[in-house]
Every structure is written in structure tokens, then in C-alpha cells.
Amino acid sequence: MKTGVIDVGGGMRGVYGAGVFDYCMENDIHFDYGAGVSAGSANIVSYLAGQYHRNYSYYIEYSVRKDYMGFGNFLKTRNFINLDYIYGTLSNSDGEYPLDYEAAKNSGKEFVIVATNAKTGRPHYFTMADLKQDDYGPIKCSSCVPVVNKPYPFRGRLYYDGGISDPIPFKKAFADGCERLVVILTRPKDYLRTTKNDRRLSLLLRRKYPESAKKLATRAALYNEQLKAAAKLEKEGKLMIIAPKSIEGLGTLKSSNTDGLIKLYDMGKKDAVAIKKFLASF
Which residue of 129, 132, 147, 187 sits 20 to 30 Å from the alpha carbon of 109, by its own alpha carbon? Predict the structure, then answer.
């Protein structure tokens, strides 16, 4: 059976998914297909490259650096998250902790990176073929959080975070031929998004990127709808949801709570034990 994994990302909460994938690497658990949203795409590409603990270093060690993210970056460049530093300076072949691009490319696995076209508000699905050595633009696009960052330019188009147009892309995974899925969330399974902050932030996008603003304003409804559908599919045995019981006080852009990050990473490793049983049930 074609087995897929989806990591929905969630900024610093993505450390939970990093724990899940490290457990999978430790225990020889393989997927034929991976779809990553935002930070989830970075988690998956390190997993495909077989780089155990690489993502841990980014979340726990590097994220506290001023170059990584912060208001200093925002004041200088209008980008709170320095995507070029994370997925360029640190990740390139001459970087501090390079991505093993050749290993990821030659993994034989399908890789989908979900981004949002800033002009149309529609999801755009990059693949491994869109990545090049030291050119990880699609991951930057997928991780470009609206409002706190300007849309990321890539090959003549502008992109925002994939989470505003397809936050839990299980339909895409099934359309691509997956027959069973593991879905990694970074909030509890019973968590439902609210519209308050999204609607307020969407007003700041409305003039330049009206279609993305609409998507941001309705993101909560889309996420909640997709979560409900995923839960139904889980009851039918077609997918499994892995989700933390607590987010340990972590937010999308808060990196100072090191203890919380480590606890959430450890929770991911612990919860991932259930994947073996799910895959063995087929």
C-alpha cells in the first residue's frame, strides 16, 4: 500500500513533528509520500535525507538567534522570520548544518510542499523537482507567514504559507495515490481554530493581496472542516492522527521557552510509537 505522511507545521510547535520523525528514523519506519505545510515541509525534507536530530538543532539551538527571527529582522527587512538565514545560510552546503540534498533527492520518496500563491490565494504544490542544491525556495515559500513576513518571491511569483490555503492536505495526498495516511498535527486533536486574530490580520493584507486576505480570514473554518473530515477518516481506518495532548505554552513564533520545546519534541517521539501499530493493521 502507498503510505503517506502529512506534517501540518505550526512554527515552533513543529518541534513536535521533529520528534515524530526522529522516532521514525530510529525505528526504521518509512513512508512512500510526504506532504509538508510550512515548518512541516522542513521536517519532512530532513527525514527524507535521513538526518536524525537535524530539525531538533534548528528548533532548540538556532531559533533563539537574532538572525533566525525577531523584531530586529522585521524592522530591517519587514520579515520577522529570516527565511534566507534558516533555509539558506544554515542549510546550504557551506552552512552550519547543511541539508543533505542529494540524500533527500535520491530517497525515492514523493515530496509535496504546500504553499499559497499570494496573488490568487490558491494552494500551490511544489515537489522535490522544484528543489535544487542550495536553492530551497519552495520551503521558504511554504513557511512564509502572512503579515509578519512579506510574500516570498520564487520564479516570478509571490507565495505565502501553505497553511492558509490547504492546512491539512489529506485530499491532495489521496489524490496522489496514497491509500493510508499518518497526519501530524501540532495542536491537540480537539483544538478548533477561531477567527478573531485571522480576521484582524487579514485586514492588513486586503489592499495588496485581497485573495490571500480572504483565505486568511476564513482559515479557521477551513482548518476545522478539514480536521473534522480527517477525524471521520480516522474512524474509518484510512488515516491516523498524531497530535500532542498539550502544546506546553508554545506559540507559532515563540522560541524562548526551551523547556517547552524539548517537552514537545519528547512528546512527539513518545506519541509516534502508535504509528507502528497503525501501519501493521493493514
Answer: 187
CA distance 135 to 83: 12
Angle at 68 between CA 64 and CA 69, to 5 degrees: 85
* b/e per residue 142-164 (b: at least 16 CB within 10 A): bbbbbbbbebbebeeebbbbbbb
Taking alpha carbons only, the member of 103, 104, 123, 106 closest to residue 114 is: 123
Say if residue 45 is exposed, middle or buried (CB neighbours under 10 Å; 0-12, 13-18, 19+): buried
Cell of 229: 473530515
Average pLDDT of the residues in 13-31: 97
Say if residues 149 and 85 touch (Cβ distance below 8 Å).
Answer: no
Q: How confident is the model over 233-260, as pLDDT tens digits?
A: 999 999 999 999 999 888 888 777 899 9
Closest C-alpha to 182, from 163, 168, 193, 192: 168
> What is the separation, in whole angstroms, between the first and last Cα of the chain?
8
